[in-house]
Amino acid sequence: MKVRQGTTSGGRAVGRRGAALALGAVVAVSVAACSSTGGAPESSGGGEGGGGTVDTPRATIAMITHEVPGDTFWDLIRKGAEAAAAKDNIELRYSADPEAPNQANLVQSAIDSDVDGIAVTLAKPDAMAPAVQAAEAAGIPVVAFNSGYDDWKAQGVGQYFGQDETIAGRAVGERLTSEGAKKTLCIIQEQGQVALESRCAGVTQGFTGGSTEILNVNSKDMPSVEATITAKLQQDPSIDHVVALGAPIALTAVQSKANAGSNATVVTFDTNSALVDAIEAGDVAWAVDQQPYLQGYLAVDSLWLYLNNGNTIGGGTPVLTGPAFIDSSNIDAVAEYARNGTR
What we know:
Helix content: 40-55%
Largest sheet: 6 strands, parallel
InterPro entries: Bact_Solute-Bind_Prot2 (IPR050555), Peripla_BP_I (IPR028082), SBP_2_dom (IPR025997)
Oligomer: single chain
Radius of gyration: 21 Å
Family: Belongs to the bacterial solute-binding protein 2 family.
Structural class: alpha/beta
Pfam family, one: Peripla_BP_4
GO molecular function: carbohydrate binding
Domain Periplasmic binding protein: 63-309
Number of helices: 11
Strand order of the largest sheet: 2-1-3-4-5-11
Order of helices and strands: HEHEHEHEEHEHEHEHEHEHEEH
């Protein structure tokens, strides 16, 4: 990942001398900084959370994800990104498509518009690789987050923010074992999505107290998801734990459990405000939190740091934002942030 020196936020050449002057200004700002990541605040009220706005040059960053419409998990990603953008004097261009070829096209559109940096998810890394490489060839720094833990370095991406999904899955499996589970159903809502498949693989590795069965569903058709889970629980009453890989699937599994008259315990990866409510109500036992707000924030903030001071985070290794468990022991503290729309 190389610094794009000699450009403004719109990509216009300013020359080597202008770039040197700009870098000198950045250094001066960094020395005098009083915000958490440098840059003198222009005001005390800018940005979410009350932080100031830096006085570094305006930059444009594209954030391109594989967001599935209706999955509020991505609202948390976007809020974190918007908070960092507001603080860092960045124009954030957010776009998303769950289909990898379309997501790759969005990356190419960002390249064509000459953005200053790109933050991208790599849910289907093979399909995304050519677009990522095109960005790097254009001298646009790229960071990855949320998906692509096993592939980001091979693609030449500079930084990664997220969790090791296999480790997270193992932690879930180990907890299921400790809780006495015997038959676990792990639900994958999109086949071929590497993060989801790694989660269930990790659950299988970590769960030594019994057996794990994989159930594939299509999250684009939630009534079908409910019917499929209901049918499975009716057919196999020995299933005592359902592991969902996202909050909407977990909440649907709660309804399926009721439909089937099952006594299975529902647990999940990822949260949203409705999922937090479900943990409070006891409908979902616990969730694995990878801190999506933090992922969005760090993806944007890291690009600002790189563009303005050549900084990278993680020393060539991924910056882990999870896993952590949310359950009845800590739900009250998390619920406060969920009500604010950041957890």
